[in-house]
């Protein structure tokens, strides 16, 4: 006969093995190959996930034994009235007008907006999103789709709705509504070629400061490259995107070229209104 103590230890081990860690939303997301936000939307039955993917996610959740915390979700929905809005600057009329039109819509729906500016710096955006998440907002709105890895991770871990505006990506954090700036630059280049321009030059802001401007320049350059034409010279003397900065830089650029008896058919592409 097996000793009693041995049997007791065996039973204890067996019971411990039967204990399972509760399945988390992260487990479902990993198994389904989607974001935490997509799982949340699928389980709540809200927009943002296709019907096919919704059924797939729910089936995976059923197989794993995942049960959403309805109480926590209810408390979050009931208590959160803050919407965080991040824009590069309020000195640009585009972003000022976007926020001006957003605010009354949110106010009417019972939400309050908290806005901050990043000055086009990823580190500032990262610090802002960390502060914002600590306030448990109902959602956040970010400008553009160029964010640090940590910013994306913090938002995904929080599991709140996130909207990226004024740019386009096939891999948004959650949702995005905006412009494909590379395609926009390409369209402009195609048009300029069609009407006969062959000596393009560029006047713009410092390299790396405005990623969407760089995307537009890439699209423009690609259009001319199809005709073995290189965009250049490239003048990056504009410190901040503005009509005045573009005008002054173009005037200086043109003055030098005139003295050197050189002419170019495109003198400036600052595209301030699409910052």
Indicate the CATH class of the largest domain.
Answer: Alpha Beta
Helix-strand sequence = HHHHHEHEHEHEEHEHEH
**Main sheet: strand order:** 2-1-3-4-5
The termini sit apart by 82 Å
> How many distinct domains?
3
Number of strands: 7
Largest sheet composition: 5 strands, parallel
Strand portion:
5-15%
Q: What is the number of helical segments per DSSP (H or I, 4+ residues)?
A: 11
Uncertain runs: 1-19, 266-274
CATH architecture of the largest domain: 3-Layer(aba) Sandwich
Name the CATH homologous superfamily of the largest domain. Answer: Response regulator
Average pLDDT score: 80
Helix-strand makeup class: alpha/beta
Q: Kindly provide the radius of gyration, computed on alpha-carbon positions and rounded to a whole number of angstroms.
A: 26 Å
Tell me the CATH topology of the largest domain: Rossmann fold
Shape assignment: elongated
Range of helix content: 40-55%
Description:
This protein has 275 residues and is α/β, with parallel strands linked by helices. The model is unreliable at 1-19 and 266-274 (pLDDT under 50). α9 (181-194) runs parallel beside α10 (211-225). It has three domains: 4-68, lambda repressor-like DNA-binding domains (434 Repressor (Amino-terminal Domain)); 79-177, 3-Layer(aba) Sandwich (Rossmann fold); 181-274, Rossmann fold. The longest helix is centred in the C-terminal third of the chain and has 17 residues, at 243-259. Helices cover 51% and strands 12% of the residues. α10 (211-225) links the parallel β6 and β7. It is elongated and about 70 Å long. The strands form two sheets. It has a five-stranded parallel sheet, sandwiched between helices. A two-stranded parallel sheet has the order 6-7.
């Amino acid at each position: 006969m097996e000793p009693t103590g041995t049997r007791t230890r065996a039973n204890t081990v067996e019971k411990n093995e039967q204990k399972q860690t509760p399945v988390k939303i992260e487990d479902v997301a990993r198994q389904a190959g989607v974001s935490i936000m997509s799982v949340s939307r699928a389980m709540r039955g809200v927009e943002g996930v296709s019907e096919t993917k919704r059924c797939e996610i729910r089936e995976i959740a059923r197989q794993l034994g995942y049960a959403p915390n309805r109480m926590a979700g209810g408390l979050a929905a009931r208590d959160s009235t803050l919407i965080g809005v991040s824009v590069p600057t309020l000195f640009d009329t585009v972003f000022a007008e976007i926020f001006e039109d957003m605010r009354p819509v949110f106010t009417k729906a019972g939400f309050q907006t908290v806005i901050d500016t990043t000055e086009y710096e990823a580190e500032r955006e990262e610090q802002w999103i960390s502060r914002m998440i600590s306030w448990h907002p109902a959602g956040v709105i970010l400008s553009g789709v160029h964010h640090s890895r940590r910013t994306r991770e913090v938002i995904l871990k929080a599991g709140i709705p996130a909207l990226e505006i004024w740019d386009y990506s096939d891999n948004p954090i959650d949702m995005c509504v905006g412009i494909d700036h590379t395609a926009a630059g390409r369209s402009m280049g195609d048009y300029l070629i069609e009407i006969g321009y062959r000596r393009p030059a560029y006047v713009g802001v410092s390299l790396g400061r405005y990623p969407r401007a760089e995307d537009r320049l890439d699209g423009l350059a690609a259009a001319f490259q199809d005709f073995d034409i290189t965009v250049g010279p490239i003048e990056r003397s504009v410190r901040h995107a503005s009509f005045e900065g573009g005008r002054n830089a173009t005037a200086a650029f043109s003055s030098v070229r005139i003295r050197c008896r050189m002419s170019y058919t495109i003198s400036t592409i600052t595209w301030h209104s699409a910052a």
